[in-house]
């Protein structure tokens, strides 16, 4: 369930997660930062004492042995100040990698449980992109917090103590410099965050067109149709939109920061002049003047550093808030699904399949005003083969996605064995094996590609070989260089193997057959198959589905005739259903479609 975290609550949650993942490294960072924070104040105090000693020697001619150990300690501190950054950098990067691994892993882990319907919603995808693109900003906030507290603040406290002991009024200089620097930094940080949210839509478009121009997947069509220039102009349009606003903010950042720095410099010069006059009048020693002179510039730098870190943490807290809200929405789903018993022990949580019922089911995609399915009702019984037939855009693929549990109805209910699919979508989905028309080509081994259909059986060679046999994939496996272990695709490895559309379609069929599901859903399984191979595949499918429950999605009469019952769908509605012969006798939409496809086939044959 989604929680609306406050910035503070999100920050505390993020800090707990960081301690859990990199606690030891964060402690190491804190210790190094604390040790480093005392270096400069100690060096300043030693420099003051050494300067006073030199002035005293010059005035009296008496040499004191204290000067030797002070000089030795000063050199040692100088050496440490220049060596600590190496160990600090080592720990910093180790901590950064640990935090990135944790939060990137947390994001990747939780998105597994986001419902498919969310990815069809543009507003969700904008929020998704914002959170995903700024995971590293969360880590930077934690990485800034440690040196802020244990280095910058500690050093500032030590400096304040020195100011109070020598010239208390210098505390006002420090406060003014800090307030000016922090106000500017926070203002710019908030503007950058708001701009990043505002530009998510344009950034997604820019990334999309860049992908079109640079991806292998689209390289063929772009070159055949000479579309590169047109798409490049679109990419450049969005790039310029992004750049214009970012450049405007960057210039504002430069101007405001320069004004803050100038204010600090003017204050520093005025303060140095006052200190110089105090030293001339003898109200402070030369050593104190030298010490304070060195501290003033350092204080201005530290004030700038603290304000930058604070504003950075403030920005990170805004991203932490987005991240925590996003994760909390799906954490409950993740906990429920991860607490499931072993799938193989509860393969049929609803009992053996008996019936699948659609009852007044309607469905509307996000941001759409028209239903893709409208008041659809039917029942499929065990052992029945049903074909959903219709032209492209009729709603048949949407129906298949609802049937397998990928989508849930907007209205109406789906029942399996009399139980609502919405009661336990995970358990419901276990009954179905599906071969999608718009399938995913995943660049892993052939064996893993097949096992995706029922991944808990990835090490069950018998089930994998059964799926290979059912999909008539044996000849392809035999010709591949490493058989089932052959990597598919050459996008990430030159030793991979590219498959044709028809070969991929057989792989998708094998996915659907994997684990021998209770109900088989095949969505246009012969769409990319040549006619001769289609006849062989239809014959093979007929054997496989004989005596089993199957839903066949197609716009081809030849494929639909494998079914016991044909459901005709048009504009999201069921307009008629029955067997092939029954529908021909009705002389309705099916008969019209049958005659049209028969005439087309005869024309092609005559040609």
Automatic annotation (TrEMBL):
UniProt keyword annotation of Heme present: no
Protein name: ABC transporter ATP-binding protein
Domain (ABC transmembrane type-1) ranges: 27-315
InterPro entries (UniProt xref): AAA+_ATPase, ABC1_TM_dom, ABC1_TM_sf, ABC_transporter-like_ATP-bd, ABC_transporter-like_CS, P-loop_NTPase, Type_1_exporter
Main location: membrane
Pfam family, one: ABC_tran
Transmembrane residue ranges: 21-47, 67-93, 142-164, 170-189, 272-296
Domain ABC transporter: 356-596
GO MF term set: ABC-type oligopeptide transporter activity; ATP binding; ATP hydrolysis activity
Lineage top rank: taxon: Bacteria
Compartments reported by the entry: Cell membrane
Keywords: ATP-binding, Membrane, Nucleotide-binding, Transmembrane, Transmembrane helix
Membrane topology term: Multi-pass membrane protein
Entry's Gene Ontology cellular component terms: plasma membrane
